[in-house]
Amino acid sequence: MNRRRRRTALLAVAGLTGGLLLTSPETASAANLIKNPGFETAGGDGMPYCWKKSGWGDNDFTFTTTSDAHSGGKAMKVELTRRVDGDRKALITESAECAPVVSPGRQYDLGLWYKTTTPDAAVTLFRHDTTAGWQYWTDLKTLDMAGDWTWATVRTPEVPAGTDRISWGVSVYGTGSATTDDYTMDQVADPVPPPQCTGTAAQCANGEWDVLPTRNPVRSMHSVVLHNGKVLLIAGSGNDESMFEAGTFTSAVYDPANGSYKIIPTPKDMFCAGHVQLQDGRVLVMSGNKGYPTADGRVGYQGYKDSYVFDPVTETYTRTNDMNDGHWYPSATILGNGDVISFGGLKEDSTGSVAAELFSEAEQRWQPLWKVNQTWSYWGLYPSMILMQDGRLFYSGSHVFGNNIPGTGAAIYDYDANTITQVPGLRKKDERDQSASVLLPPAQDQKVLTLGGGNIDSNPEANRLADIIDLKQPNPAYVAGPPIPQGTVDLGNGPVPQTGDQGKMYVSAVLLPDGKVLETGGALHNRADPVHETSVFDPQTETFDPVAADPEAHGYHSSAFLLPDGRVMATGDNPGNGTWNHDVSVYSPPYLFKGPRPAITSVIDTEWTYGDTQRITVDRPIAKAELIRPAAVTHSSDPNQRFVDLPLSVDGDNVDLNVTSNPDLAPPGWYMLFAVDANGVPSVAKWVHLTGPKALATTDASAHVHDFADDLKGKAAGPGKKRTAHKVGPTVSGCDRHYGSINVCVPTAFPAEVKPTTAARCTWLKRHDYGRLKVNGKDDPLGLDRDRDGVACGKGDARKR
């Protein structure tokens, strides 16, 4: 994971160069927003006017004002002769006098002439937030090596809200030098007229849901968008004990192009497995259900050690070697080198696994435990482990079932150092059961949003909380975001408006190609009371916009995901009564009703490597382009979902895209490439394959990684005492197995408004369509069989307390 310890970012250094000859400021040209773009005017600190020395880390460097200029008599040379980490850069002075004024929502074309002796040089931007001050914004472009003067241009993303000025320059982050001259910065003209609504007013404002005419033939709770545009839907036994006893395990491949489903032979019960897409596009499926709980509830779910790879070409499963432990409900995160790391879940004996597992991309097999760093920590079930830009993992606090991990509920795990550091600020950390966490667009911003959640142990009303953390901060902490909008909730007698603080668990969060996040689906209580509410979160303004609500119930075991055509598909719902919703709904966001869509008319090369410049052609002007990693989602969890911005260099219909040099920002694999116009209207995606090593020099230089989240003040812990497992109760899923069949979930804790009487509990169960419930064994912990006839909530029970 190549974690490197870092110190202070943007360390100003003492001047090392001599004074310049000119003494009076020169004005920028009418179009050029840069003051002193050619370094011809001297400043008072040994640097040219309106330029400063900047950088950080352990390295040896020089700043030289050289006469080897592109034009005029001066240029700026920045050189590193030794580097362990960090960078050096000549940066526009971050002051009201020098930093160019910008307007939120606008874009700017940046240009410069350069020569380099290192491939490790990049155009780096900082922005001035009117509230928070100066902060790192993004890296825009890796400069190709050039022995002669070479012109480079790049277009910024839209300027974020609250930004009034920017500063930028060239970072040198490998041994060698970059000499630059004649900087330019121009505001991009409005490329297209305002959008014209092509649908109804409601469609243009709120989008539209459609329920597909063909139902999903399998009880799928796992959805993976494949690089051929089809969708793998994994059910296994589908939480149906009769299917498990019969050994009937199912998957299906859905083709959005024609609406067809193909049933796929499935070798094991992949119900509640983990899954992730490998860099070649195959799907690694790990563990699953070895056994359901016993009828009396004395033994819980069991996870098996088996692991399989699904090939989208042959549409078949192939077995890999076994994992070291069983892992029912494991995490699965792909790393920057293509390896996969997994935590948590239940073992073959229903205890919690404390073993971290590593699947080697090079060896195509799970590694023995002695090759994998271990803290012997139990991370719970489906812990949301998000890869950070420096290779560390951020545990967001989202998980499945019960309470959160001890401590603050969120943490940063440093694999190389093998340390866990708690991160503060997550509200109601023990009510984040089946919340959703997502790395916000663009991934370069390193912000994570965590939405909603509940707790199946105590079964309170699910919450409306939205918490945001900025991992670019030296000591990041969650801060409160706006509450999730309320919709309607079906308590068993039809939808009614939500009241008070009612929110939802089982929420789905989907990255959209316009840079926003769709949140949809959910329920108010443990496998009950579906919530119909959908909204769009804008990371730039940190606001929710309520849109059309999904007419279908999509709660427990549901999933929602982005299709390559820009629509969102939602499938699955498994209430506590054991039924399944096979209806599939598809959402068309408002951007699909804003007029013609741009089209990517050609992609010169679909095989991309880190640090590349890749050319596409489009049929009309676009404002941005991005890579979106296709979904591999289950139980509100897809920690690998990410939106990676691709800065543009525009020449008419030819657009050069600048690919990040950092695979920890965009792990290797297949991505959907979208081009988006100034009105937020996306193209249909093209598929591109990103692989290869980091963009490195042949020295000790690493990819350009900034100094984020590196002054952590939370409680830190190293490896604990080696142990075999973590004790987990058999009621971990929030179901009392004394009643009904295994796929029925009578809650161990009823909602608070249900009085603790037989009559009230039986009324609630009847209202939620539980039907006849056999009592398993002689115990009746919830008092549902007062007449002891072996049937819960029978005719004689309701009359007894």
UniProtKB/TrEMBL annotation:
Residue ranges of domain Glyoxal oxidase N-terminal in the record: 251-577
Residue numbers spanned by region Disordered: 776-801
Residue ranges, compositional bias (Basic and acidic residues): 776-790
Keyword Signal: yes
Residues covered by the Galactose oxidase-like Early set domain: 597-689
Signal peptide boundaries: 1-30
Alphabetically ordered keywords of this record: Signal
Protein name: Galactose oxidase-like domain-containing protein
Species in which this protein is naturally found: Streptomyces bullii
Phylogenetic classification of the source organism: Bacteria, Bacillati, Actinomycetota, Actinomycetes, Kitasatosporales
